[in-house]
Specification:
- It contains 6 helices and 9 strands.
- The radius of gyration is 16 Å and the shape is globular.
- It has one domain: Spore Coat Polysaccharide Biosynthesis Protein SpsA, Chain A (Alpha-Beta Complex).
- A 7-stranded mixed sheet has the order 5-4-1-6-8-7-9.
- With 203 residues, the chain is an alpha/beta fold.
- Its EC number is 2.7.7.77.
- This is Probable molybdenum cofactor guanylyltransferase.
- Belongs to the MobA family.
């Protein structure tokens, strides 16, 4: 896309507990750089506004490179991704957010652009592949907030639990597009991703 998207704020969710990783996934490194900063730079190619949503701003204070990035502190503590999405919907000024997890390295901005072109006026545009949804790689309209807050009140914390009450459009991923959506949940995932990245650079 030649012009940046103006009516959407990209919101990267950074408030998870990272139990399987053993340390905060927001601070995964690629050589000497934080993967999260690389993700922000990629998203800034496409979006005018990129924010981080975190359980606390304090964890970024002594980390190099984060000073210029807006950080929203989660209103919904211990409520998982639905809390982060709801915080972003409540705080941003744009009509939509694009929400993604911080453990998805180097997002494919071409894929996100194709998703945006399919968005139309739906409340939610979410990726699907072989019947599985990717609610943490999706567009959400601000009008989703009441439905998500109701789910939080009921302690039903999966974002998709609110989809039955919203206008949802599916973006069906091709096999190639599916390979571009990677989650790094464990040290083993990081090792595999590093090996794949190194192989791609050699090729």
């Amino acid at each position: 896309m030649s012009e940046k998207i103006k009516n959407v704020t990209a919101a990267v969710l950074c408030g998870g507990k990272s139990r399987r990783m053993g340390f905060d996934k927001a601070f995964l490194m690629d050589e000497e750089q934080y993967l999260l900063l690389q993700t922000v730079r990629e998203l800034q190619i496409l979006f005018e506004q990129v924010v981080l949503v975190s359980n606390t701003k304090a964890k970024f204070e002594d980390r190099t490179g984060f000073r210029e990035i807006p950080i929203l502190e989660d209103f919904y503590i211990e409520k998982g991704p639905i809390g982060g999405i709801s915080t972003a919907l409540q705080e941003v000024q744009t009509e939509y957010i694009f929400a993604m997890a911080c453990d998805m390295p180097l997002p494919d901005v071409s894929l996100i652009g194709r998703m945006y072109r399919k968005l139309g006026r739906k409340q939610v545009l979410v990726c699907s592949h072989e019947g599985k949804l990717e609610p943490l790689f999706a567009f959400y309209h601000k009008s989703c907030l009441p439905a998500f807050e109701e789910q939080i009140r009921k302690n039903e914390l999966r974002p998709r639990s609110a989809f039955s009450s919203l206008e949802v459009e599916m973006y069906h991923l091709s096999g190639e597009e599916k390979r571009s959506i990677v989650n790094l949940n464990t040290p083993g995932d990081v090792q595999k991703w590093n090996e794949k990245t190194a192989k791609n650079e050699r090729d």
